[in-house]
Structure formats: structure tokens, C-alpha cells
Write a structure and sequence with these properties.
The protein is mostly helical. The protein has 13 helices and no strands.
Length: about 300
């Protein structure tokens, strides 16, 4: 943690961790919304609209904080935005060559990769309790996502790039959020994603007019809630929440996606999947209840 940021009280930190759970729930809820939207619009074009809406909204609200970042802050936001964008792009491309269930598990491996990167680059070793939480969440992800066994495909290797990128994103925020305005960093991230996905759109897709209700609804929900609100909360929370705990909490996204699929769409989960979701929840609880030492990753 930087010298410019005072340690948070346990109540405030736990409040931020609860907010991260809310972010994971939002991302899980929007899974079906995105699925419906990209049926009517090219994937990268949808991502452009989503992140552009978030960028415009956050810029209007946090313009002063963004201007106050300075050159180093802008570079930090650029790095975080690049990692985030590469993760989304790799996940999107990889899904074309593998099963969604396998992709869900491989993407979730950021919960393992983030503590490793945190230890190497930030010199912040996770506590034993946090690592138990990582283990439980990883097993839970496998049971929840790899429903018929994990058979590695070409697409899985691409999705693994996404897992590494999301882990890098978490570590970058852990490094720079305590030093710079979280709001300003989030604004830069959203604009970087918008510009990169715009390039991807014109290089790989034929843009269409996004006029269907599913696309409009998807852009509004993901742009405002999943992007503007979600990444603002994550960037703020990572001022005080360790990369390992952040990764464990955000790994609950597929569990929430499955839960909302059952509640909203009437889908069903197998007994194995319910056990997986329970293990992810257990991993979060273990990580939360474990004492956090200074410098924990």
C-alpha cells in the first residue's frame, strides 16, 4: 500500500469486499443480457458501445479527478485498460473455438494466477487462509464450469490469455489504486477499452446499426452497471483489498451467472454444479474470515 493511503478500518474494508461481491453478482446477472445482445450485434461493436457509454458517463462525473492523474497516473490507467481490453478480446475470440463451460473454468483461473503475480511483482504473499480460499474457489470453478470434464482445446489456450490478463489487471490496480484517484483510473481504463475495441471492430467486423431492443438494453445495463459502476467499485476497493481476496471474490461471477440462469431463465444446475457454486462461496467466506496480515497479496 502506498504511503499516501491510510489503512482502512476493518468495517470499511469489509464493506468494500461486500461491494465486490455485488460487482460479481452484477457481472453474473449481465451474462444472459450480453448473450442476447450479441445475437443481434457483432461482439466487438457491442463492447465498443458498452465501454463508450461507461467512458462518457464517468468522464462527465469525474473529469476533475481524471485531469489530476498526471502523466504517471495516465500511464497506470493505460496499463490497466490494456490488460482489461486484452482479457475481454481473448475471451471473446477463444469462445469461438471452445465450449462455454471450458472457457468459464479457464477464465476463472485468474483466481490462481493473481496471487502468483502479486507475490512476484508486488512482494505481497497471500496468507494461508486466503490460499485455502483460492483452492476452494478453483475446485468450485471446475465443478461449476467443466460439466463434462475439461478437454483442452485451441480456444482454451486463447482464453488462458484472458485469465492471465484479468490477473494482471487485478495486480496493476493493487499497485496503483492506492496512489492515484480510483475514479480517474477508471475513466482512463474505459477510454482505452473503447478505443481498442473500436479498432477491433473495423479490423474484424462489419458494423451494424444497433437498434434492436436486446442490443439497446444490453448496452445500457452493461455500460452503466457492469462497466461504469462495476469497474469503479473494483478500482476503489483495490486500494484496500488484497489482489488475492479480490480474485477470490470476483471468481464468484460464474456462480451468480448460474444462479440467475435458474431464477430468471428457468435453467437448471446439476448437483455437481451446485456443489461447485457452494465451494466458491466457501472460498470467499474462508478468505474473508482469515486474518489479513500487512502486505498480504
Amino acid at each position: 500500500m502506498s504511503q499516501g493511503t491510510r489503512p482502512a478500518s476493518p468495517v470499511y474494508r469489509h464493506g468494500l469486499e461486500l461491494a465486490l461481491v455485488g460487482v460479481a453478482a452484477i457481472w453474473g446477472f449481465t451474462f444472459t443480457t450480453v448473450k442476447e445482445a450479441v445475437a443481434d450485434a457483432p461482439v466487438f461493436e457491442f463492447l465498443v458501445l458498452r465501454f463508450a457509454l461507461a467512458a462518457v458517463l464517468l468522464t462527465a462525473i469525474f473529469w476533475r479527478q481524471t485531469r489530476g492523474l498526471g502523466l504517471r497516473g495516465l500511464k497506470a490507467g493505460l496499463l490497466a485498460g490494456l490488460a482489461l481490453s486484452i482479457g475481454y478480446a481473448a475471451q471473446t475470440i477463444g469462445l469461438q473455438y471452445t465450449r462455454a463451460s471450458s472457457a468459464g473454468f479457464v477464465t476463472g483461473l485468474f483466481v490462481v494466477i493473481a496471487p502468483i503475480l502479486s507475490t512476484i511483482f508486488l512482494r505481497r504473499r497471500p496468507s494461508a487462509g486466503s490460499m485455502v480460499g483460492v483452492g476452494l474457489a478453483t475446485i468450485g470453478l471446475f465443478l461449476l464450469s467443466a460439466t463434462s470434464g475439461l478437454h483442452l482445446r485451441y480456444g482454451d489456450a486463447i482464453v488462458l490469455v484472458a485469465a492471465v490478463s484479468f490477473a494482471v489487471h487485478i495486480v496493476i490496480l493493487a499497485r496503483y489504486s492506492p496512489e492515484f484517484s480510483p475514479a480517474g483510473l477508471t475513466v482512463v481504463q474505459m477510454w482505452v477499452a473503447t478505443l481498442l475495441f473500436t479498432a477491433c471492430t473495423f479490423l474484424t467486423e462489419t458494423p451494424v446499426a444497433p437498434t434492436t431492443p436486446a442490443v439497446i438494453r444490453g448496452v445500457l445495463i452493461t455500460g452503466i452497471l457492469a462497466s461504469a459502476v462495476g469497474f469503479s467499485i473494483q478500482t476503489l476497493a483495490q486500494r484496500y483489498v488484497s489482489p488475492t481476496r479480490t480474485a477470490v471474490i470476483l471468481a464468484s461471477e460464474p456462480a451468480f451467472a448460474g444462479l440467475f440462469g435458474v431464477v430468471v431463465l428457468g435453467e437448471s444446475l446439476s448437483g455437481r454444479q451446485w456443489v461447485g457454486a457452494a465451494l466458491i462461496l466457501a472460498g470467499i467466506l474462508v478468505s474473508e474470515l482469515a486474518p489479513q496480515r500487512g502486505g498480504e497479496g
